[in-house]
Every structure is written in structure tokens, then in C-alpha cells.
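pasting for the record
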Amino acid sequence: METKELTLFEGGFESTPVTMSSQEIASLTGKRHDHVLRDCDELNESYESLGLPKIGESTYKAENGHTYREYRLTRMQCFDLMTGYSRELRIKVNRRWEELEKKERTELPTSFADALQLAADQQRKIEQQQKRLDEAAQWYSIKRWAKEHGTDWRAYRWGVLKALSYEHGYRVDKTFDKNYGEVNLYHRRVFEMYENGRKWRQLH
């Protein structure tokens, strides 16, 4: 799925680059999405060492109700990623890019009123995406929580976190970790309850 944003500037509107999601790349190439995410992680490490802009990260909600991460790649980032793939897979992705860019050209507004409407629609999408990102920021893996709070991740019992989540009406989400595969995500309030319970046990 392509993403296109309009920016108002003196004299009219300009559109930001089209992006392709890591999910669509997985679908086009027949690769598992977690493997594409791993490849994007490694590519971002190279970008960071070279001082280049990293691939943008987003989230999506799957049919099972869980929230997962995905990447949004520009055309150049997509080409960098595909360098290590086979010729046939590169051709498939290149042809898809051609379709996306043709569609973008035909969808650009032809009047100022159309441009305003498209910009308003895009703003609503951006706000919805930001809301999802803000919500996703409230969910932590055990390792992320431990790292941000200076504790040992091995001290946390996932069974207790899971039980606390269900007891207090919080779902348990999933995400992909390049080292451990699929891992659980627990809400910030669940970790806080866990920490309070641990402090209580230490005092008693």
C-alpha cells in the first residue's frame, strides 16, 4: 500500500515520496515478514554507520487484534534492500514501484479545492497513525522495560505479567525481535503493578 502526503507551500501543493511497506515487500517476494523486518534492521544499521536517513518504522493491527511493527521504505531504500535478493524478486518489486508511481501521477489533485480536500484527508490519516503510535508506545517487551528502567530482564516472570494483564483487562500484544523472534508486549500499567508487587514482597 502506498503512502502519499501533500504539503502546502507558496504557490500550491507538493507531494512527499511514495513508500512501500515491508508487508507488501514480503507479499511480493514470498518471504516471511519477520525475515524482511530482520533485513530492514540490518540495513538500518548500515545507514546509521554511513550517516544516512534510516527506514521509517510504523505499526499495523493484524486480523488477530495484535499490533505489530512494519517498515515504510522509500524507493531508494527498497532498492538497497533488494540488492541481496534474487533477480526475479527484484523485478517483481521494481514493477510494483512502477505501478505505484503511475498511480500517484494520476491521483494528484487538478484543482486547489481538490488539493485542500486531499490534504485534509491525509491529515486525518496522519492523526490516526499518530494515535496508533502513541498507543503502541505504552506497550513494552520485558527487555525494553528492563533496559529503560535499569533492571535485569531475567528478573521478570512473563507468566505473572500475562496473568496481571488478563486480570486487569489488558491485552497481550506481539512484536518481532530480530534476536528472539516473536515476543510478548505488556502495557506500561501492568509493569507498574508488577514492580509495586515486587517491592511489597521485598518489604514483607
